[in-house]
Design a protein that fits this description.
260 residues; alpha/beta; six-stranded mixed beta sheet; two-stranded antiparallel ribbon; 8 helices; 40% helix
């Protein structure tokens, strides 16, 4: 199996991925995956009361949580730069796809995600080199581990990110699985809110597109990682949104798992 990054200033692409959390690099069977997911569900529930999260009508998120030690702050930032992941009170509810059948999961292909992340950051740095402030959007953002690392790497590279738009149907409070996504959103928004980055949360591509039209948001990049559902809706939902809101010369970046 192989992976290919699709990085276009708007063009053709596909993304085949999964939506299970990254619960263990050692998981190699479905029963183990289910047990690990159950353990993480309990962890998410236990952490829910530790965070405050308020999402305004326009999607703007305000969050706060436990104080993070200076040591953990430095370790989290270092880990993001080196392709590692430091688990602490600020990151322990963030996760990503780890399905054993996915050729983009770390258990099957340990290098693809970090290679993709670095490739995207390099292109965003180039696309934003004359900008004083940029916005990016992530559709199918899920439990946000990739976006957390990506945004940290962009900031480290000097990209002047001022706002992030996170899009996923599980950010709707009425959907199944919302509770764990809410905790992940709270951790993400609390961390980057302290870095003076505006975090917006949208429960659908349509609502993000509406907000973008209303406020004249022109993202320099739109990411799609671990969201196979949107692959099949590209022509009907994703492409029209990109044509409408993506900045001229902007990037649509999708992580694609392929057989062969």
């Amino acid at each position: 199996q192989a992976w290919l990054p699709h990085l276009f200033g708007f063009g053709s692409l596909v993304a085949m991925a999964c939506s299970a959390p990254d619960v263990s690099k050692g998981i190699n069977s479905l029963p183990e995956l289910r047990r690990a997911k159950a353990g993480f569900s309990l962890a998410w529930k236990s952490r829910a009361s530790d965070y405050f999260l308020d999402i305004a009508d326009d999607g703007f998120a305000i969050a706060s949580g436990p104080q993070v030690s200076e040591h953990d702050v430095l370790e989290v930032q270092r880990a993001c730069q080196t392709g590692d992941w430091h688990v602490c009170v600020a990151t322990d509810c963030l996760a990503e796809c780890s399905a054993p059948t996915c050729s983009c999961s770390r258990s099957m292909n340990p290098t693809c995600r970090e290679s993709f992340l670095k490739a995207v950051v390099e292109r965003v740095v180039d696309a934003a080199k004359f900008e004083t402030q940029v916005t990016y959007a992530s559709i199918g953002a899920g439990l946000l581990r990739f976006d957390f690392s990506f945004l940290e790497c962009c900031l480290h590279a000097g990209v002047p990110v001022g706002a992030v738009h996170l899009v996923d149907n599980r950010y709707d409070p009425d959907t199944e699985g919302h509770a764990c996504h809410r905790v992940a959103l709270a951790q993400f928004a609390a961390w980057f809110g302290d870095r003076n980055i505006d975090v917006f949360v949208h429960p659908s591509v349509e609502k993000f597109a509406f907000h973008a039209r209303k406020t004249d948001v022109l993202p320099v990049a739109v990411l799609q990682v671990d969201c196979s559902e949107l692959t099949y809706l590209f022509d009907t939902e994703v492409k029209p949104m990109l044509e409408e809101v993506l900045r001229y010369g902007g990037l649509f970046c999708a992580l694609t798992a392929r057989e062969g």
